[in-house]
């Protein structure tokens, strides 16, 4: 049996912080842009394009592992070398699961926006922002807590991260 992947928790917080800022920008752009009536107008809105990009990063992170997303790579190459070694490492499975939750929430926002639901994109981006902000600012990962709850309930098995 292989040993579970371990990550630097500071990297996860950095990733969450970058994501929170981008989600906050998405919310602001969504509030300014509203929900146009025509589909062609909705798909070129900056808020929509940014949320699609963030959803793609969430999907990538959930599928390839949280350590392989662009913000984690940036952290490892530019920031971590300037820091002392981490006091402890954490299992990558809960943050990777959390990325899947983020993917689900942002994809729902994309679909709602495409369907013309007023402020559906804003609501989904705001929900994802709250989770990313809590993780970035306070180290409290809602998706990780959901993962642990589901493992304890026996709904999912604890797995090693990719």
Give structural notes.
There is one protein chain. It is built from 7 helices and 2 strands. It has helices at residues 9-33, 39-42, 46-64, 70-79, 93-114, 120-138, 142-152, and strands at residues 6-7, 90-91. The radius of gyration is 17 Å and the shape is globular. It is mostly helical and 162 residues long. The protein has one domain. Helix 3 (46-64) runs antiparallel to helix 5 (93-114) and helix 5 (93-114) packs antiparallel against helix 6. A two-stranded antiparallel sheet has the order 1-2. Helix content is 68%, strand content 2%.
Give the arrangement of secondary structure elements:
Blueprint: E1 6-7, H1 9-33, H2 39-42, H3 46-64, H4 70-79, E2 90-91, H5 93-114, H6 120-138, H7 142-152
Antiparallel strand pairs: 1-2
Helix pairs in contact: 1-3, 1-4, 1-6, 3-5, 5-6, 5-7
Task: Name the features.
two-stranded antiparallel ribbon; 7 helices; 2 strands
């Amino acid at each position: 049996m292989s040993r579970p992947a371990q990550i630097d928790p500071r990297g996860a917080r950095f990733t969450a912080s970058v994501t929170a800022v981008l989600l906050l920008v998405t919310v602001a752009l969504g509030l300014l842009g509203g929900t146009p009536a025509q589909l062609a107008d909705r798909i070129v809105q900056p808020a929509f394009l940014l949320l699609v990009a963030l959803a793609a990063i969430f999907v990538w992170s959930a599928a390839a592992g949280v350590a392989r997303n662009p913000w984690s790579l940036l952290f490892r190459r530019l920031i971590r070398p300037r820091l002392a070694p981490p006091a402890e490492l954490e299992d990558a499975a809960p943050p990777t699961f959390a990325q899947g939750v983020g993917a689900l929430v942002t994809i729902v926002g994309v679909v709602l926006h495409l369907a013309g639901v007023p402020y559906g994109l804003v609501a989904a981006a705001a929900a994802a922002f709250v989770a990313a902000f809590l993780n970035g600012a306070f180290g409290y990962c809602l998706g990780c807590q959901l993962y642990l709850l589901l493992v304890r309930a026996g709904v999912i098995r604890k797995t090693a991260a990719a």
